[in-house]
Amino acid sequence: MQEKKNLEELLVRVLSKSGEKGATFSEIYASMKSLYPDIRKIEVRELLSILVRDGVIERVPDYERKRMVFRIKTKHGEES
Question: What CATH number did the domain enclosing 39 receive?
Fold first, then answer.
């Protein structure tokens, strides 16, 4: 359980570096993999799902990149 909490915090730090433009799943996974080599894609997907459900991050379309991106959600529901 503690490890999952640490991974959630790490994922939030990774996303905070992407700013308001956000990051795609592939970008997030690559960053997480470089910091935590043993992580699997399914674990990153689960962490993203938990953080979206908890309102910490949001998943939004990026029409320029033609991808869905994740970004930190502010208290008012706007991007950071």
Answer: 1.10.10.10
Q: Residue 57: give the domain boundaries.
A: 2-72
Look at residue 77 and tell me if it is in a domain: no
Residue 64, in any domain of the structure: yes
pLDDT under 70 in the chain at which residues?
1, 75-80
Q: Is 34 exposed, middle or buried (0-12, 13-18, 19+ CB in 10 A)?
A: exposed
Which is nearest to 14 in space by CA: 43, 38, 34? Answer: 34
30 Cβ neighbours under 8 A, 6+ residues apart: none
80 in a structural domain = no
Q: What is the spatial distance between Cα 64 and Cα 78, in angstroms, rounded to a whole number?
A: 19
Return the pLDDT at 80: 44
